[in-house]
Design the sequence.
């Protein structure tokens, strides 16, 4: 359910940007969402549609760029790509040694607007 | 605010009184989901844009494959965290709390793991040693705040309506009502939910996840975000272990797969076992707060 909060926060940032740049219509919104971020994309798209219907972002397209999960191993100091928190180091095979360095982002990057 | 899930204006209440919502002026109306065809445009890898200017010409954005035909369209770089607003409130809360030398603990668990029972029994032990206040978060009812008030401690109840977590704005409003004293202990009992409360920083010093032994060993694996975000795990209802097939070592091992080094304390909030270790943990972290004044004796 927190995808609704995310959609609301998103709209708020879009509206602030629209005021600042005197936009009349937002056509596309680019997001960066990390693979480890607790975000269900389908749900976010659904709530974004619901929440923007009477706004400047009505009919705006949501483009989601996925950021891969990455972690560094405290055992061998090398970094691995990870799809979840529950993974072994791809270099030395250790468990319980990975520190996440990337993949938790939830960012709004860019707008295409008029 | 809604940084509250599901809450349109007027659904969030503190001690029964509606609080202003940060964003939504109008109630949400649901409509059928528009078919999304955006997947084709999504590039599989992030492409860095090195353009320094804030406003970019059309087509110079993240994906040129999606350059618009319309002449007035332009690209505007933003680069902001979606939860930025929540995080700003959380930072304000944290600044206030550290200035007042208040140790704030955010208690998180699925419904019924024993958060309120733990609080009531913790308060019984600590109430004569230091000032304590409690912020209770639930979707509905003020049962939990009432249970806390029975101990003689002041408690503020936030009802999130349909919202499934507390956010930093609600906590700020609640703190204004309850005005926690300097050098006190502030407990925030979050809405019972192992999923999204982990995403919302409230400005607390530590997040404490409570897992009870009736829930199964695999919860850390099933709800990794929560266990990854937590600073301490309390394994509760250990008095029930003789009647269950719950494997304590396995549960801790799973928690450590998700969060290497996560400290774990085994307790029975109801019968008191392990409670002293928990109290010592609180005491150690209070002493770690930069202050001259500590426990009243
Ligand atoms: N056996 C046993 N029961 C417990 C223990 N701690 C809590 N309970 C019971 O678990 C039930 C739920 O406890 P609460 O303290 O209300 O749990 P909660 O996490 O605050 O619940 P919500 O606020 O509704 O999410 C109650 O019936 C408690 O008596 C414990 O250590 N052992
Ligand atoms: Mg409770
Ligand atoms: Zn390694
Ligand atoms: Zn939520």
Sequence:
């Amino acid at each position: 359910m927190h995808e609704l909060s995310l959609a609301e926060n998103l709209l708020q940032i879009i509206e602030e940007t629209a005021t600042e740049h005197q936009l009349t219509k937002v056509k596309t919104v680019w997001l960066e969402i990390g693979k480890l971020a607790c975000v269900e994309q389908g749900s976010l798209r659904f709530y974004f549609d619901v929440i923007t219907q009477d706004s400047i972002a009505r009919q705006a397209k949501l483009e989601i760029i996925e950021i891969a999960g990455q972690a560094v191993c405290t055992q061998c100091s090398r970094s691995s790509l990870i799809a979840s928190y529950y993974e072994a180091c791809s270099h030395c095979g250790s468990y319980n040694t990975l520190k996440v360095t990337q993949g938790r982002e939830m960012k709004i990057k860019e707008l295409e607007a008029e | 605010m809604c940084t509250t899930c599901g809450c349109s204006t007027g659904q969030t209440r503190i001690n029964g009184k509606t609080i202003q919502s940060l964003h939504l002026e109008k109630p949400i109306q649901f409509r059928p989901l528009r078919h999304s065809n955006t997947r084709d445009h999504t590039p599989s890898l992030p492409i860095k844009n090195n353009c320094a200017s804030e406003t970019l010409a059309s087509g110079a954005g993240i994906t040129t494959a999606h350059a618009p035909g319309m002449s007035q369209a332009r690209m505007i770089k933003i680069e902001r965290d979606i939860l930025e607003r929540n995080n700003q409130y959380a930072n304000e809360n944290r600044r206030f709390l550290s200035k007042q030398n208040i140790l704030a603990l955010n208690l998180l668990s699925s419904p019924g793991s024993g958060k309120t029972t733990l609080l009531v029994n913790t308060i019984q032990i600590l109430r004569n040693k230091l000032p304590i206040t409690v912020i209770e978060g639930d979707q509905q009812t003020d049962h939990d705040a009432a249970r806390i008030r029975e101990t003689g401690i002041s408690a503020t109840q936030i009802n999130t309506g349909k919202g499934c977590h507390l956010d930093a704005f609600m906590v700020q409003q609640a703190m204004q009502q309850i005005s926690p004293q300097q050098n006190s202990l502030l407990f925030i009992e979050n809405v019972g939910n192992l999923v999204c409360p982990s995403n919302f920083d409230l400005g607390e010093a530590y997040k404490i996840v409570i897992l009870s032994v009736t829930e199964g060993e695999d919860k850390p694996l099933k709800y990794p975000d929560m266990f990854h975000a937590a600073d301490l795990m309390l394994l509760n209802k250990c008095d029930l272990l003789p009647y269950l097939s719950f494997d304590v070592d396995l549960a801790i091992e799973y928690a450590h797969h998700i969060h290497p080094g996560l400290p774990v304390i085994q307790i029975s909030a109801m019968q008191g076992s392990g409670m002293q270790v928990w109290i010592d943990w609180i005491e150690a972290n209070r002493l770690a707060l930069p202050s001259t004044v500590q426990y009243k004796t």
Notes: Helices of chain B lie at 84-99, 115-126, 143-149, 168-178, 219-222, 224-229, 248-258, 275-288. Residues B 115-116, 144, 189 surround magnesium ion (ligand 2) (CB under 6 Å). Chain B touches chain A through 67 residues (CB under 8 Å). Residues 12-84 of chain B form one domain.
